C-alpha cells in the first residue's frame, strides 16, 4: 500500500511548481532598459511560408534591359565611372540669339546651330548640302587618310573645332569626332605648302606602299622557287643514288676516324674520340 501525501506536502509541491513556472517566464522574457526582465507578453509571430522565403527584391534602377526578354544587373551601377570623354550637348553651348547673324553664302537667317556653336561658322543647312567641299564633316580616320594629318595635330582644339558625338556603332566605344572639311583643307594647304604638294605626297606614299608590297611578293616568290629547287635537287639525288626517303643511317669512318659517312645517302658527321 502506497503512502498517501498529506495536505501540507501537496501544498508544498504546488508552491514549488508555481515558483518554477515563474522562474521559467523570467528567464524567457527579454531584459528592459533598466536591466529587469520584461514581463509583458508579445504577440506570437506567424511562421514564414515557402512562397515568402524565396522572394527577392530587385532595384530596377540598376537593371539593364537586354531587349531579349531578360533583365540583367548593370555592372557599372554603383561603381566609379570610367574615364570617358563627355559628350557635349548642343543645347548646353551658350548662344546669344539677339546677335545679328546671317549665312555667309546666301544671307539667310536660318542658320545651322551645330555649325554656329561648335565650328563658329555661319551657314544654313541648304548651303551645307550645296557646298560639300567646304562644309562636309569628316571623321578622325578620314581626316588622317585624306589630308595626311597626325593625331597630335587633330587633338589641337585651337586648330580644329570638333563635334563630339556618341559612337553610333557601339555605345561603349570611344566617342566619334567630326571635323569640318574647310578647316582640315586650309591647315593641310599650309602644312604641305599647297594642295598640289599634298597630292604629290599622297601619290608618293601610295607608290611606296605598292613598292613594299611588290618587294615582299618577290621575296616570297624567290623563297618558294629556292625551296622548290632544293626539293627537286634532293629528289633527283635520291633517285640517282637509289635512296629511300626515310632510312636508317649506316655510318662508316673515313680518313683518320674523326668523320663518318653514311653509306646510303652520303651524309657526313664529325665524331669526337675520348680517351679514358
UniProtKB/TrEMBL annotation:
Residues 22-52 are annotated as: Disordered. The keyword Lipid metabolism does not apply. One of its GO terms (cellular component) is nucleotide-excision repair factor 1 complex. InterPro entries: DNA-bd_dom_put_sf, XPA/RAD14, XPA_C, XPA_CS, XPA_sf. It is found in: Nucleus. Keywords: Nucleus, Zinc. It comes from the Eukaryota. One of its GO terms (molecular function) is damaged DNA binding. It holds the Pfam family XPA_C. One of its GO terms (biological process) is UV-damage excision repair. Residues 134-182 form the XPA C-terminal domain. The keyword Zinc applies. This is DNA repair protein rad14. It comes from Coemansia spiralis. The gene is RAD14.
Amino acid at each position: 500500500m502506497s503512502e498517501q501525501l498529506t495536505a501540507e506536502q501537496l501544498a508544498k509541491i504546488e508552491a514549488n511548481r508555481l515558483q518554477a513556472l515563474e522562474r521559467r517566464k523570467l528567464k524567457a522574457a527579454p531584459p528592459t532598459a533598466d536591466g529587469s526582465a520584461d514581463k509583458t507578453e508579445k504577440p506570437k509571430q506567424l511562421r514564414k511560408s515557402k512562397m515568402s522565403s524565396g522572394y527577392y527584391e530587385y532595384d530596377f534602377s540598376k537593371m539593364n534591359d537586354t531587349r531579349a526578354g531578360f533583365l540583367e544587373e548593370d555592372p557599372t551601377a554603383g561603381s566609379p565611372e570610367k574615364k570617358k570623354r563627355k559628350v557635349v550637348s548642343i543645347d548646353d553651348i551658350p548662344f546669344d540669339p539677339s546677335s545679328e547673324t546671317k549665312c555667309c553664302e546666301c544671307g539667310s537667317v536660318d542658320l545651322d546651330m551645330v555649325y554656329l556653336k561648335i565650328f563658329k561658322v555661319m551657314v544654313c543647312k541648304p548651303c551645307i548640302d550645296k557646298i560639300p567641299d567646304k562644309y562636309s564633316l569628316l571623321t578622325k580616320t578620314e581626316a588622317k587618310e585624306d589630308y595626311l594629318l597626325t593625331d597630335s595635330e587633330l587633338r589641337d582644339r585651337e586648330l580644329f573645332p570638333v563635334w563630339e558625338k556618341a559612337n553610333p556603332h557601339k555605345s561603349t566605344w570611344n566617342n566619334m569626332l567630326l571635323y569640318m572639311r574647310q578647316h582640315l583643307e586650309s591647315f593641310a594647304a599650309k602644312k604641305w605648302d599647297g594642295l598640289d604638294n599634298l597630292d604629290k605626297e599622297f601619290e608618293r606614299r601610295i607608290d611606296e606602299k605598292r613598292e613594299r608590297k611588290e618587294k615582299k611578293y618577290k621575296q616570297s616568290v624567290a623563297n618558294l622557287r629556292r625551296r622548290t629547287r632544293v626539293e627537286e635537287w634532293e629528289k633527283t639525288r635520291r633517285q640517282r643514288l637509289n635512296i629511300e626517303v626515310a632510312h636508317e643511317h649506316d655510318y662508316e669512318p673515313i680518313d683518320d676516324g674523326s668523320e663518318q659517312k653514311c653509306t646510303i645517302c652520303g651524309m657526313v658527321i664529325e665524331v669526337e674520340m675520348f680517351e679514358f
